Amino acid sequence: MKFVPHKYQEHAIQRILDTPFIALLLEMGLGKTVSTLSAVDLLLNDYFEAERVLVIAPLRVADDTWAREIDKWDHLKHLRISKVLGSVALRRKALKAEADVYVINRENVEWLVSELGKQVEFRYSHYRRAV
Prior knowledge:
This protein has 5 helices and 3 strands; from the N terminus they run ααβαβαβα. A 3-stranded parallel β-sheet has the order 1-3-2. The protein is 44% helix and 11% strand. The C terminus is likely disordered.
C-alpha cells in the first residue's frame, strides 16, 4: 500500500529525525508505527545515522504490529525485521539474524542487557543539527 502521510504524520517523522530523544504520543490508529518506521528507514538508509534499530514494545505489539506494518507499506517492504521473542535459544538466534529492526518485548529487556553486556550493538549517532 502506498503511504501518503497526513500533515501530523509528516510532522511526527520530521520531529523523530530532528530530536535525539522523543516520545511519539498519538491516539491508537493514528499511525505511530508507520511514522516511526518511516523515520527509521530514513535514519538507516538516507542519513546513515543508525545501523540497527531496537524497538521495545508490549509482547503482542512486538510479535505482530511492527512486522505487519513493514509488510503493509510499499516504502518499508525492504526493511528486515527480527523478532527477539520466545525461548532464550530463539531470542539468541534472532539477535544474530541480519536485520534492520529488532523487536523485543518489555519483559525481556533485562535479559537483553545481561546477554549483551557492554557490547550493546544498537547505537544512534545524531549529528545533524538544524541550520
